[in-house]
Amino acid sequence: MLAAAAVATHPDDPLAGLAVGEQPERPVPDGWMTVSVRAAALNHHDLFSLRGVGLPAERLPMILGCDAAGVTEDGREVIVHAVIGDPAVAGGDETLDPKRTLLSELHPGTLAERVAVPARNLVPKPASLTWEEAACLPTAWLTAYRMVINRAGLPADGGGTLLVQGAGGGLATAAILLAKAAGHTVFVTSRDEGKRKRALDLGADVALETGARLPRRVDAVIETVGAATWRHSVGSLRPGGRIVCSGATSGDGPPAELTRIFFLQLSVVGSTMGTREELVDLVAFLDRTGIRPVIDEIRPLAAARTSFERLARGDAYGKLVLTV
Ligand SMILES: NC(=O)c1ccc[n+]([C@@H]2O[C@H](COP(=O)([O-])OP(=O)(O)OC[C@H]3O[C@@H](n4cnc5c(N)ncnc54)[C@H](OP(=O)(O)O)[C@@H]3O)[C@@H](O)[C@H]2O)c1
After folding, report:
1. 307 touches ligand 1 (CB under 6 Å)
2. Does the structure show a pLDDT above 80 at 254?
3. Cβ proximity of 181 and 149 under 8 Å
4. CATH number for the domain including 124?
5. What pLDDT is recorded for position 255?
6. Same domain flag for 149 and 131
7. Could you give the number of structural domains in the chain?
8. How far apart are CA 265 and CA 259, in angstroms?
9. Domain that holds residue 316
10. S-S: 199 plus which of 204, 212, 214, 278, CB 3.0-4.6 Å?
11. Model confidence band, residue 310 (pLDDT cutoffs 50, 70, 90)
12. Residue pLDDT, tens place only, 38-67
């Protein structure tokens, strides 16, 4: 079947190991179901895989992709939950299963005509979402949902203040939309003036250059940029505030700012993906509020290389979607 796969990994030249073409289908394990993919979306995770992060050479070739929506063999329209894990071994949260894996790490991913997942990983797609919109939800949007709604410690009925770093990213745009729909004030930073303007168009209250002083201290920070923004994130919190961190795109080696963290009694909370239940809640949240993923571009799967080039250049605003 047609797929976008990692056939080699290169830490400094990720696209050199990308192959868009025919890949064999693996046998489907008992209890798993095959989904005919209608749309799939790219994530930074796919580039990390092509760099060899979390994808050792013995697992190659590996079909890439964590995000998809499609149709099951018995005709159900579904969104694919990308976290393969057993909630029973981790207090009901499969993201805490020590053997947890994401699609495309151990099992073939979603950038293909078909993808197989455990039956519990299928979530009904509401008719109100297009295939392309639904395909954006399982990674960046689910991660942002858990961070903003369940991990940031913001009041459930709105009124909190949130800083989102790196406003142009797929996860960051999701965080802006979710936080605004939940009734919070949102400050954003971005290196790019055009992305700052687009963040304001999405509803952000204030958009500033990366590292600029905020109008006031915030309750929580959505941090995915890492080294380039960490100091600013720690410095932007009110006493008792919280950084929720799910990524380190620019590297993970900044000074920890420990003195400020203990003196102001700040919390640093790690967050990765979300549970199936949170994906169901996210879908219901979109259905209820009418907010939708920002999609930069939709291309056919066969043209995946061009989308990967845009992801690697970092010039996309929102999600890059592939259709099958
Ligand atoms: N843990 C999880 O479950 C999980 C899930 C999804 C994503 N992630 C991680 O979250 C991160 C973002 O993912 P994504 O898919 O949203 O990626 P993305 O769309 O490529 O966005 C990354 C953003 O980071 C900002 N950035 C990059 N380098 C920077 C630098 N040197 N200085 C300042 N800002 C910089 C950019 O914002 P501006 O151009 O606006 O400045 C860019 O838009 C990745 O590291 C990804 O692996 C983690």
Report:
1. no
2. no
3. no
4. 3.90.180.10
5. 87
6. no
7. 2
8. 10
9. 2-136+293-323
10. 204
11. very high
12. 999 999 999 999 999 999 999 999 999 999
